[in-house]
Each structure stands twice: as structure tokens, then as C-alpha cells.
Amino acid sequence: MAERSKGKCRYCGKEYAFGYMGRHLAACKKRQERLAAETGKRQCGYFEMAIYSKCDHDYWLIVEIRDTATLKDVDQFLRDIWLECCGHLSAFEIGGVSYEVMPDADPFWGESVKSMNVKLKSILEKGMVFDYDYDFGSTTELKLKVLDYRTGHLRGEKVTLLSRNNSREFVCDKCGKKSAVFIDSEEFWSGGGLLCEDCAEDAGDEGMLLSVCNSPRMGTCAYEGSDIYPDQFEPDTDRGIEGAR
To answer: How many C-beta atoms surround the C-beta of residue 58 within 10 A?
Structure first.
């Protein structure tokens, strides 16, 4: 398998590929100094998790999540940073059990279904790997792996973003020269459709144009990117169709 894209460590800023970032975070001196400097009376457990796209391994996140958070909190984080476009349904698959926002008491396929309102500490442990799907029509499929578990001082935020893949550069499919900033969603899934700002002016239907963004859902449904986490990392897109025209 080819080496995955690189990302920056939240604490020291050094860049590593996905396969090494987990090991770096475990040994990062800047991170250890930051954790040692944290104070507070209350203690809490934290799961460190790697999250990545099943279909395109260049999209990945490494996060630390409070063990008292719920799967619903993880679902909301994934929607906020990578996925949300039209309020689609989603589900985690853990140990043969489907965890959903509104579980059906009588599921069609007869599989076990439970609510996402379950605390992570009651279902996760180090080394576990499980699945997550967003939108059961144009589905974005993710994998989550529990890399580590530690106890530390209670933070205000439930989820801390430790690293994410750097934004990818795409070249316009039409002119072959300038950076692509838009996607013609009609052509994207057939292997084309990436357009620079100038070439997008000649696009036939502006309503079919979506923004290039740092997400495995890029080009799908009506997804336009997220700017919810600029305090931790630069937002994955700084323009929408209206902002660039």
C-alpha cells in the first residue's frame, strides 16, 4: 500500500504520514509537557482514536475523546468536521451491533440495534476497530481504531483534534494548469469534474458545482466543507460557490 498523506502534530507541528503519527503522538515531548502542565481536581479517561476513510486513505484524523462522551458525541464531531450536508442518518457498527440515533425496535434485517446515547467507556477498549456510515444513499464509509487510553485532568472539550491530513492539492481537469477549487458533481464520479475558478465560469449548470474541500465526502450529495474547527486546525475550505463568484 502506498504511503498515506501527511499531517501535522497539534503540539509540535512536525509532519508525519498517518501510519507514523500515532507513534509520534505517544512520544512527542511537546505533548507530554502540555499534559504535565494541565491542572484541575477532576480526572477523566481519554480514548485516542484514528479515523479514516475506507475508500480513500488520504483522508484521516487522530483525535482524543473523553471516555464519558457518547457515540452521539462522536457522530456529531464527524458530521461537523467531515460530513454534514443534508441531515442524513448514520450508524456505528461495533461488535455486530448497530448504534443509531433513532434505533428501530424491530429492525428489518433482524440485527441488534441500540441507541448512540451510550458512553464510550462502556463499549470501547484499546485495539478495537469499528465502522461508521453516514448517509445510506450516497454513503461515506469510515473506519475508527482505538489507539490508546489514558487518564488525565478533565478538559472543557469532549473531543480534541490531535492531527489531520493536510489539505490536498488538485489540478483543474479542464485546463490542466490551475488549482481546482470546484467540482462538477455530474462528472466527478466518472473520473473528472475538477475545475479551477476560471474554468468553472464556463460550467453549464452552476447548481451542480460543489467546493473542493478536505473531506472524504468531497463531491458527494450537497457537501461543501466545514469551517467549524479553525481554532484547532485551519478550516478545510474557505469559500463556497457564492463566495467565489
So the answer is: 17
Distances (CA, A) of 117 to 84, 102, 122, 150, 160: 19, 10, 11, 22, 20
Residue 79 confidence (pLDDT) above 60: yes
Task: For residue 109, name the pLDDT band (cuts at 50, 70, 90).
Answer: low
Question: Which cell goes with 229?
Answer: 474547527
Asked if 170 contacts 194 with a C-beta cutoff of 8 angstroms, the reply is yes
Q: Which of 7-16, 135-144, 181-190, 229-238 has the lowest mean pLDDT?
A: 229-238
- Please name which of 44, 19, 14 lies closest in space to residue 29, comparing C-alpha atoms: 14
Residue whose entry in the numeric block shows the C-alpha cell 464519558: 68
Q: Which three cell numbers stand for residue 37?
A: 502542565
Return the higher-pLDDT residue of 235 and 40. 40
**Residue 205 pLDDT > 70:** no
pTM of the model: 0.89
Burial class (CB in 10 A: 0-12, 13-18, 19+), 227: middle
Nearest-angstrom CA–CA distance, 116 and 137: 20
Question: 162 to each of 21, 39, 94, 225, 241, how far by Cα in Å?
Answer: 9, 19, 23, 20, 30
Contact predicate 42/200, CB 8 Å: no
Question: In the sheet that 129-134 helps form, which strands lie side by side, from edge to edge?
Answer: 112-115, 97-100, 90-94, 129-134, 140-153, 43-53, 60-66, 159-164
Give the start-end residues of each E strand in 15-85.
Answer: 15-17, 43-53, 60-66
**Number of residues assigned to the chain:** 245
User: How far is 113 from 129, CA to CA, in rounded Å?
Assistant: 18
Are 94 and 109 in contact, with CB atoms under 8 Å apart? no
